[in-house]
Amino acid sequence: MGSGAYVAAVQADSPLLWLRLTEIAGTTFANAGSLGGSATAQGTVTVLQGGPPHTDPSVHPAGSSSDWISYPDNAALDLVGNATYECWVRSTSFAQYQGLMTKGKEVAGGAGYEFRINPSRQLEVLATGTTLILTSTGTIPNDGSFHYLAFTRSGNTYTSYIDGAAAGNVSSAQVIASNAQVFAIGVEDLAGTTGFPLQGYIAEPAVYSTALSAARILAHYNAGK
Predict the structure, then answer these.
(1) Where are the alpha helices (DSSP H) in the chain?
(2) The whole model's pTM is what?
(3) What does the alpha-carbon distance between residue 10 and residue 109 come to, in Å, rounded to a whole number?
(4) CA–CA distance, 30 with 223 (Å, rounded to integer)
(5) Domain containing residue 165: CATH number
(6) Spatial CB neighbours of 41, under 8 Å, sequence gap ≥ 6
(7) SS3 for 116?
(8) What is the predicted pLDDT for the residue at 110?
(9) Residue 2: what pLDDT?
(10) Domain total in the chain
């Protein structure tokens, strides 16, 4: 399971949501973050897959739009203020967009947001349906390995990170409103209709109510790599 160093690094920053994905069977995953509760596998999600060297295991959604993980609606997961989103991903293909974490994208009124990978191996943050806020300048290596992916929001500044290093930032006054949709992992959730599923494996998805500093992002990466 995850090394003590990685667990300590994440716990030190008080995540709201942190799925360690260590369950050996079943379709529910305990939230080790402060919001508590559990997430649920939708469709086919294979557990206890290999992960980064010093983290907990990954899970492998089967690759269709029916295969993902849901966590119940919680206003704390609406991207309306400072926040950090992170996960470790091993992609088996970059041929399409791949949803990493999303909540309420393209609901009526365009309230939600999405964190995803584009076919050029860049990270993107979108809001209000198709409004692109951030595209990383760096790209995810296409080497079959796990990579640490994250973005932070600090005020109106959004910064992406790949393997602990800043990969582009932008200032945007785009309003992201609250919504009552579930929090989706490993897929793009278009107001209840899913698409653009993750092609590969995901480990340690986590959300924080603060914008972690570059030093803390690097600490998470170094502890897990």
Answers:
(1) 4-11, 214-224
(2) 0.95
(3) 34
(4) 22
(5) 2.60.120.200
(6) 27, 28, 29, 59, 68, 69
(7) strand
(8) 57
(9) 57
(10) 1
